Amino acid sequence: MIEMPPLQFAQTNGIRMGYYEAGPKTDMPPVVLCHGWPEIAFSWRHQLKALSAAGIRVIAPDQRGYGATDRPEPVEAYDIEHLTGDLVGLLDHLKIDKAIFVGHDWGGFIVWQMPLRHIDRVAGVVGVNTPHTNRPWADPIELLRARFGEHMYIVQFQDPARGADKIFNSRVEQTFDAFMRKPVPRSESAPPELPVAGVGASPRLNLAFPQMIAGYDAKHDPRTPILSPEEKKVFVDTFTKTGFTGGINWYRNMSRNWQRSADIDQTVRVPSLMIMAENDQVLPPSSTDGMEKLIPDLEKYLVRGSGHWTQQEKPEEVSAKLIEWRRRRFV
């Protein structure tokens, strides 16, 4: 039986946002859990239960474009100003002054931006896998294109005509079968590709995700799923209904976000925790090198044996660290 608090709704920043809340309303500052792509608030089901049982007030929204939350049409409606503004509006709706923001994957990028843009609403920040980095010296899409080429998934996402949305939308179960698995134990110096239609793994990371999904066959995948059939059904049913475009539109604002952030000081001036995953192939622990220069009050914690979906792969360890840090730093 999957336990989730009741779904509630908030009018925030021009949209209706679905969210889940647990724990005592008297607990301050509460913890806001922000998911990544392709995920939903359900990705935090283990932490909602554990943190609330520990007496911590915890809130997990479906963010703009996802799940029970509105999916505006304009691509520009998914820029960083809207995404951080949504969280401020959620606090307003709940009459919360400040919160600790915890983010995984894309959610990590959002929560690191919160103290840069809305410092008066942020008590602390926790990044899960996603580091805080300085503003790139050039447009991040051009940097990714130069490093990885046109088939790199983020580069592909920039042009809707290339059909990435359609590939994911027409292969929802394949997408979650392929993505939501534990990594293969590292026996080589480089991470493997996901198996595609029985083709053997090659010693490099395949970042052409749309094409990978189009050719994926779970029968030939030796990796262990991290979701039970019941849990996978929640993701598949949700994205079958909503599609993937809302989340992909976050990527389509990377150049816009970069252009509009030139005058923002990148120093994070709140207590911060960086939870790293030893075997994350896209966001490895090495990607956090140098964060201390931008975050004076930073702790780091390594989750060994975990791939990218850390809060779902190692839920007890992630929850325990969040509880320990929250209790120690916010008495």
Automatic annotation (TrEMBL):
Keywords carried by this UniProt record: Hydrolase
Molecular function (Gene Ontology), one example: hydrolase activity
Superkingdom field: Bacteria
Residue span, AB hydrolase-1 domain: 29-315
The name this protein goes by in its record: Pimeloyl-ACP methyl ester carboxylesterase
Origin species: Bradyrhizobium canariense
